[in-house]
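Aim 2, interim progress. The first record below pairs a target sequence with its structure tokens.
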Amino acid sequence: MRTYSLIISALLVLFFSGCASPRITLFSDDTVPLQEFTLQGKGKGKILVIPIKGKISGSTSKGLIFTKPSMIQEVISQLKLAEKDSEIKAVILKIDSPGGTVTASDILYHEIAAFKKRTGVKLVVAMMDVAASGGYYIALPADFILAHPTTITGSIGVIFMQPKVNNLMEKIGAGLDINKSGKNKDMGSPFRKTTDEERKLFQDLTDELGKRFLNLVSRHRKLDKNELAQISTARIYLAPKALELGLIDKIGYLEDAIAETRKLAGLSHDARIVIYRRTEYPNDNLYNTAVDRQSGQGLALIDLNLPESMSPLNTGFYYIWMP
């Protein structure tokens, strides 16, 4: 209680003391530079672990105190920092994501593939709870993909989501007048029904984006026609079926992913396992996904305790599995 009182008092002082006051950072945020921390090992050569957790998006999250960088910004920042360190011989992407927007997923895929091409660094993916749809899409450039025995993956496809409020507006007697220069200008409007023509246009766009995903899977994983036909249904799989279809290379745990990474990169058993964070954690280890306090166990003055899956999705195309 005393800690909460001190923090609130400090915030009130900052609020009322005006713009001339010095800036005080109570908690780490995106303005604090990333630092390297060693999780294990003391030998030569480094394996960098980059946790990718949650929905894939290019949007930042702003709160009362903190500004949280977007996933794209955070991952690319870590890749650029790794590129400057010649001691980093391999990267493990620890993915726990149901996917996200089509464009954000594609940007992250492109940046990961470009990083690998520029540096020659070995890239391994370790899938955790979920690595589905866009979460699988960004794993495609990897030299080796390992899934946890209980990982859910697959959902290789695209979904177009279009919220509608026209029935609600009719019930409450509200309306919206629109002037448009072309008949399709307000396609996807939540304020009216979708026409048959528009529905077909949206389906064509969805199919095109779905083909792009399948083509990338075919190129990276070298699947045959039968395997591609199965995954084109966009269903999800547990790790054993994903292994059978060739979507992953092995089933195991994080220790197995590290062992495979050492082998690929030609590193010793004592190679350093490092991670980038803005905050130092006592008893840190591979299972900590936080980069800073606000994404870990940091203090929140107002916490609604809403699960991430309840955050709204706007009208658009998504590489996402959202049950």
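The second target in this work package is listed in the same format:
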Amino acid sequence: MTEHTIGTREEWQAARDELSKLEAEYAELDQKVTEQRRKLPWVPLEKEYVFDTENGKKTLAELFEGRSQLLAYNIMYGPDYELGACPGCTSLGDQLDGPRLHLSHSDVTLICFSRAPIERLIAYKQRMGWEFPYVSTYGTEFPFDVGLALKPEQARQIPQVKEMLDNPPEFLQTWAKQVGAKLEDGLREAPSFIAFARDNGTVYHTYTVTAPDPFVAPYHSFLLRRTPKGEPEGAWPQRKDEYPD
């Protein structure tokens, strides 16, 4: 049990009022961030990418399914992963199907990308019980062009990645065992949300956010932050079918 203060209702209300001021400041800053995010320039994609989907080959424009906005989460599931996708990304994926209906009625199509071949994505999707469209970027330059993956030589040029490869902490070694990949291969995937817009026949890249940003985290972590104990200390993500109970 974490350390906590015992107090009266009046003391709780006074502390809660102080917290409310911080929450209001946070909400105001969040609104400013949202406004600035929407002011980012749109970058037209000059290449035509073709992906493997559960329903055959599709271009990026076709993934919009007739809507003008596309939001995708890039699940860390590289072609070298032998045991499945990243457990953390998998946990986030578990929580994407619920919002899809609401997003589709707001002119947004929600999908997921991964670099593993489509046959493995389909099998993993069935294992996890997911409903969202799962698209393979395997064999394309798309993930490298838009920053969803790194080529081996690129990874080694990033100081943080090089340090993790040269001196891997224990949690990363555990993670590598969970996905069944060498760290030098596993860490080349970037867990990210990426957004696109389609206007007058042109597809534009509009936004990307990559872990460790709080947005790139399982939604249940946001709920845990509102609980008395918060997120369990030392807890490590597991796939839902791997919990002991």
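The CA atoms of residues 171 and 236 lie 8 Å apart. This observation will shape the mutagenesis plan for the next reporting period.
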